[in-house]
């Protein structure tokens, strides 16, 4: 998962791109980058680390120009320890294109081979984002021979991109001397929206971003979500055009975005993230009441932070006391998106600390947004018991995560998933040391999200139900992905050993 931003103005954009990245920091903590366009000259700075670590005053001063794009990276493919994978990426023809991408391509290997053999384009990293950029550049190149790039030609290029690539993707491309191009995959798996602001010079500025919070938090007015398969063209004079570029678009947004990744103050495809998490609590409450005697639950506690709305609503619906028993150290990153199992396990103790007064001699229901690998929840259950809890029940606002997500969330191997071999709730409870585990049902998940926007008839729930909306995923693909992951980990270890 990554966060992307693009902006066109009549004044410098570097500070607002930086501010937008800070608002999207939750979407990736591995690397960050900003590229700006000053006349026909690109300026760029990117590096490993958090946004506030990557950019210093001297870097910001060098990011000149009134248009730009930015990216905060959470690695889903390629090498997580190499700054070569940081975005934006750049190609010098046609015109010069800076590019940032959120998502994951499911046909990246075939694309790279085609680009090399047929289009004579070399991909220098293992990133599928670089491959996507070169597909876009190739499509534009064929359209602008002896002519210039217009909005219609940019849209025609995106039509060609949609036909050649598969997967989940939202993209922003800054083209030298021309403008900003943004587009979204035909299934709308990865989010993208845009907003506007008319400044004191009566110039309408535009921003495109992964989540609405990046717009509203930087003073822009939310205009609309980019529709599945749609492209938006904003020229350097602030003129905007929109076009549907996919043949059969259908909105099937990622359910895991709403359960876990997105900020609660964002709105994705008309769904309030906070409202969705409250609604998930109501559906989960009904399941808990069916699975556990309510008289055996003394208190409901969230695992901070994303599970808090769900836990609050669950407690209210079941008329149970709600308490904050786990205190979070906000200076430790999210354990789910940390790269190694050992690092994740160690960071749980650094990240959360139980208050014994809330646990001692109580039967506690812990509510979390999801249970993926089980490492974090196992540590939390142990902490609850050491703090004096008599019984520890666990409820997950998401269903069992049984399948890899191949559209941009780093769960590529079945062996890494606690329920990847089909474990039920009772077996999970035994492994993590809980007295009982209750999961949200898939129908409950879909029902809660549909309640928030009835116009959406389906969601990408592939990591829960194994149904991949792009229709190109089978066991052979998942096995190949697992092998690529294994090889990448080995290369990572060798690189670290050489550095040491």
Element layout with pairings:
Layout: E1 3-8, H1 14-23, E2 31-38, E3 41-48, H2 51-54, H3 57-62, E4 67-73, E5 89-91, E6 97-105, H4 108-117, H5 128-143, H6 151-164, E7 167-175, E8 179-184, E9 193-198, E10 204-209, H7 212-216, E11 221-225, E12 230-235, E13 240-244, H8 255-261, E14 267-268, E15 271-272, H9 273-291, E16 299-302, H10 308-318, E17 326-328, H11 341-351, E18 352-354, H12 356-359, E19 363-368, H13 375-386, E20 391-396, H14 425-432, E21 436-439, H15 442-452, H16 462-465, H17 475-499
Parallel strand pairs: 16-19, 19-20, 20-21
Antiparallel strand pairs: 1-4, 1-10, 2-3, 2-4, 5-6, 6-7, 7-8, 8-12, 9-10, 9-11, 12-13, 14-15, 17-18
Helix pairs in contact: 4-5, 5-6, 9-10, 9-15, 11-13
Provide an overview of this structure.
With 500 residues, the protein is an alpha+beta fold. It has helices at 14-23, 51-54, 57-62, 108-117, 128-143, 151-164, 212-216, 255-261, 273-291, 308-318, 341-351, 356-359, 375-386, 425-432, 442-452, 462-465, 475-499; strands spanning 3-8, 31-38, 41-48, 67-73, 89-91, 97-105, 167-175, 179-184, 193-198, 204-209, 221-225, 230-235, 240-244, 267-268, 271-272, 299-302, 326-328, 352-354, 363-368, 391-396, 436-439. Strand 5 (89-91) and strand 6 form a beta hairpin. Helix 4 crosses helix 5 and helix 5 (128-143) packs across helix 6 (151-164). The two termini are 29 Å apart. The model is unreliable at 336-340 (pLDDT under 50).
């Amino acid at each position: 998962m990554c966060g992307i931003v693009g902006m066109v103005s009549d004044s410098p954009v570097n500070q607002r791109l930086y501010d937008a990245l800070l608002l999207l920091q939750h979407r990736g903590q591995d690397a960050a980058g900003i590229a700006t366009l000053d006349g026909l000259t690109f300026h760029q700075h990117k590096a490993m680390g958090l946004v506030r670590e990557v950019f210093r005053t001297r870097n910001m001063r060098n990011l000149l120009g009134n248009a730009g794009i930015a990216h905060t990276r959470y690695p889903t493919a390629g090498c997580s320890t190499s700054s070569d994978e940081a975005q934006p990426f750049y190609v010098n023809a046609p015109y010069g294109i800076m590019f940032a991408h959120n998502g994951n391509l499911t046909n990246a290997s075939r694309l790279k081979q085609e680009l090399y053999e047929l289009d004579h384009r070399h991909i220098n990293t293992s990133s599928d984002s670089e491959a996507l950029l070169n597909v876009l550049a190739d499509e534009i190149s064929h359209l602008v021979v002896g002519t210039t790039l217009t909005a219609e030609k940019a849209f025609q290029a995106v039509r060609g991109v949609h036909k050649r690539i598969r997967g989940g993707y939202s993209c922003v491309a800054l083209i030298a001397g021309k403008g900003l191009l943004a587009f979204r995959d035909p299934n709308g798996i990865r989010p993208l929206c845009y907003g506007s602001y008319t400044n004191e010079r009566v110039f309408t500025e535009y921003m495109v971003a992964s989540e609405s919070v990046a717009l509203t938090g930087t003073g822009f007015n939310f205009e609309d979500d980019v529709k599945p398969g749609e492209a938006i063209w904003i020229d350097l004079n602030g003129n905007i055009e929109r076009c549907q570029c996919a043949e059969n678009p259908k909105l099937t947004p990622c359910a895991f975005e709403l359960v876990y990744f997105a900020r609660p103050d964002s709105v994705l495809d008309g769904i309030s993230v906070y409202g969705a998490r409250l609604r998930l609590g109501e559906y989960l409450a009904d399941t808990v009441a069916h699975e556990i005697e309510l008289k055996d639950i003394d208190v409901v506690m969230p695992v901070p932070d994303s599970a808090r709305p769900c836990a609050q609503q669950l407690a209210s619906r079941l008329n149970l006391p709600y308490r904050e028993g786990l205190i979070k150290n906000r200076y430790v990153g999210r354990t789910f998106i940390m790269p190694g199992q050992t690092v994740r396990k160690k960071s749980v103790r650094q990240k959360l600390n139980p208050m014994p007064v809330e646990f001692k001699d109580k039967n506690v229901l812990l509510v979390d947004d999801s249970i993926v690998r089980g490492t974090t929840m196992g540590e939390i259950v142990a902490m609850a018991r050491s703090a004096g809890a008599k019984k520890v029940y666990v409820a997950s606002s998401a269903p069992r995560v049984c399948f890899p997500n191949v559209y941009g969330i780093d769960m590529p191997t079945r062996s890494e998933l606690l329920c990847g071999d089909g474990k039920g709730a009772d077996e999970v409870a035994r492994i993590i040391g809980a007295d009982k585990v209750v999961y949200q049902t898939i129908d409950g998940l879909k029902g809660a999200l549909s309640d928030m926007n009835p116009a959406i008839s389906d969601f990408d729930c592939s990591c829960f139900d194994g149904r991949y909306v792009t229709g190109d995923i089978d066991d052979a693909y998942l096995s190949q992905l697992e092998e690529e992951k294994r090889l990448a980990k080995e290369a990572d270890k060798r690189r670290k050993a050489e550095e040491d």
